[in-house]
Write a structure and sequence with these properties.
two-stranded antiparallel ribbon; about 375 residues; mainly alpha; about 0% strand; about 75% helix
Length: about 375
């Protein structure tokens, strides 16, 4: 079992700490959502098949899923601020790689590096926990939790405007510039956490988790092309199951695992994580699918025939509402408890999606359903439940 050490002097938090970390979360979400305005054009832009082009998005999500526990553990051992800067530096490097290529494999490599920035969010929240006084923690975490949705929604119209009027590679240069700014602000404003964990880094655990996720996502991405009942697809799903089960058995037996599976199976943690997954899936549906539906020609029977910029503007209320309601959720959680806030948020999500079903033919009115979703999703529930 690992132990934490706090024998170092406590770090002093400046008033700029929370805004800087929240801005960093916004920048990370900008990187994630960067290609949404051009997602339907990626096969043409990269000279490849649609199924292969999806890896430009999938690779970022995959590397983010793997990098989060790895960078989190390294942050516990060697300093969260240090790993935060490293994750942002990898994002900048990946953005620059993607900015100078139209080759599919090189683009995937660059996007994979960009996925490491996803670990900056939990690292930033960890720094808040270690540095901020308890009375300021709730509102700070609410703002940090909502920053990804805020950045994603506000970045869409800006990214669409750039992609519509300039070369789409300019999106990556912009992301790299924002990443450099985040690194500079972190160096100037964010102190290192005084908390350290004792133990070693689980190298085999990192390899096992990476292999299992790749084996699972590969058939998910290519299953439509290979056939969902083909031997290749079923074989990879079976291999993923075997690798992940063996990985889980190994993690349970280790004293210092990459992921503490015993903790994650506790009801409070398990159901909170499941709720986080459902809310995250809702966000992906809104962020990735809806802009495509808005841009598809009306002749398809389900597209709305809007431009990239209009599609981005239709998504902007999502981010604005999340920004404005994050403090409200913090107060509700403090007064009534995070469980009540979580239930209220998910009820509002359901109402927002239900209303959206009847508004799909009117992009302007449909924004109201996105505002309802955003009001619910601004809650910092994944980090507040016991």
């Amino acid at each position: 079992m690992t132990h934490t050490s706090t024998d170092r002097p406590a770090a002093r938090a400046s008033g700029a700490l929370v805004p800087v970390l929240a801005f960093m979360g916004i920048v990370v979400s900008v990187m994630q959502i960067l290609l949404v305005p051009v997602i339907k054009e990626l096969p043409r832009l990269l000279g490849t098949e649609p199924d292969d082009a999806t890896w430009v998005i999938t690779s970022t999500l995959l590397s983010g899923a793997v990098a989060t526990p790895i960078m989190g553990r390294l942050g516990d051992l060697h300093g969260k601020r240090r790993m935060l800067i490293l994750s942002l530096a990898l994002m900048v490097a990946g953005a620059l790689v993607s900015a100078v290529t139209s080759d599919l494999l090189t683009m995937i490599a660059g996007r994979t590096l960009q996925g490491f920035a996803m670990s900056a969010i939990p690292l930033g929240i960890g720094l808040m926990r270690d540095i901020l006084p308890r009375e300021k923690l709730g509102s700070a975490m609410a703002l940090m939790s909502s920053s990804m949705g805020v950045g994603g929604s506000l970045a869409l119209p800006a990214a669409a405007l750039v992609a519509q009027h300039t070369d789409w590679h300019a999106l990556f240069y912009g992301a790299a510039g924002l990443g450099v700014l985040c690194i500079a602000l972190t160096l100037l404003v964010v102190p290192e956490s005084p908390v350290r964990a004792q133990g070693t880094f689980d190298v085999l655990g990192a390899i096992g988790l990476s292999a299992g996720l790749v084996l699972f996502l590969l058939p998910v991405t290519k299953g439509g092309d290979w056939g969902w009942t083909s031997g290749t697809t079923l074989g990879l799903f079976a291999a993923a199951a075997v690798v992940l089960v063996l990985w889980g058995v190994m993690e349970v037996r280790l004293k210092a695992p990459l992921v503490d599976l015993r903790t994650t199976t506790r009801p409070a943690v398990l159901f909170t994580n499941l709720a986080s997954i459902m809310v995250g899936a809702s966000f992906l549906v809104v962020s990735l699918v809806l802009p495509q539906l808005l841009q598809l020609p009306k002749g398809t029977g389900y597209g709305l025939g809007q431009s990239m910029v209009v599609a981005g503007l239709c998504m902007a209320p999502l981010g604005l509402t999340m920004m404005l309601t994050a403090p409200v959720h913090a107060r509700l959680s403090a007064k009534h408890g995070p469980k009540v806030t979580l239930i209220l948020g998910m009820v509002i999500i359901a109402i927002g999606y239900g209303a959206g079903l009847g508004l799909m033919s009117a992009p302007g009115r449909a924004s109201s359903s996105r505002r309802s979703w955003a009001w619910a999703s601004a809650s910092p529930t994944p980090h507040c439940l016991p």
